[in-house]
Amino acid sequence: MSRLFLVLKRGLLNLISDTTKEHIRVFADDVVESSEVTTGVTRIGDYELHDLVLLDEAFQVLKGVPDRPEVVLVRLGEIKCKIEKKISVQDRFKNTVSSKDVVRILEGPCKGKQGPVEHIYRGIFFIFDRHHLEHAGFICAKANHV
């Protein structure tokens, strides 16, 4: 995971990347939030950034409060396998939805958001919305909510 450290002085931001150690100075008014992913290392072993994976049995599922998500680092050895994208599921109108199909969320906390389906697992769509700033732009929705 790459991080960017910010220092604000007199309307100027000094940005320092922990991966490249690069220093950048910009006007604070020119900076906007984004869910876009920076370039850099996007592949480790057989896995790419944003692959949906299953964790091995030794890994415990964490239950937390939705308002305070908990992030956990996972070692490569704790990944069991990658979930393939060749799955299709029916939405609430009995239309077949596959990966890369664009859907709109009709129900739930993300109602009205839309984007392409990147992954499907157990009736849950993992939808990418580049305007959604949390979770690298990914939104989860039940198949019967789109």
Beta-strand content bin = 35-45%
Number of helices: 0
Gap from first CA to last CA: 31 Å
Q: From the helix content, strand content and strand pairing, which structural class follows?
A: mainly beta
Radius of gyration: 18 Å
**Largest sheet at a glance?**
4 strands, antiparallel
Low-confidence stretches: none
Overall body shape: globular
Query: Helical percent range?
Result: under 10%
Mean pLDDT: 82
| Strand order of the biggest β-sheet | 10-11-12-13
Counting DSSP E segments of at least 2 residues, the number of strands comes to 13
Order of helices and strands: EEEEEEEEEEEEE
Domain Spt5 KOW: 90-143
GO biological process, one term: regulation of transcription by RNA polymerase II
GO cellular component, one term: DSIF complex
Pfam families: KOW4_SPT5
Q: Could you characterize the architecture of this molecule?
A:
The protein is mainly β and 146 residues long. It is 0% helix and 38% strand. It is built from no helices and 13 strands. A hairpin with a 2-residue loop joins β11 and β12. The two termini are 31 Å apart. It comes from Canavalia gladiata. One of its GO terms (biological process) is regulation of transcription by RNA polymerase II.
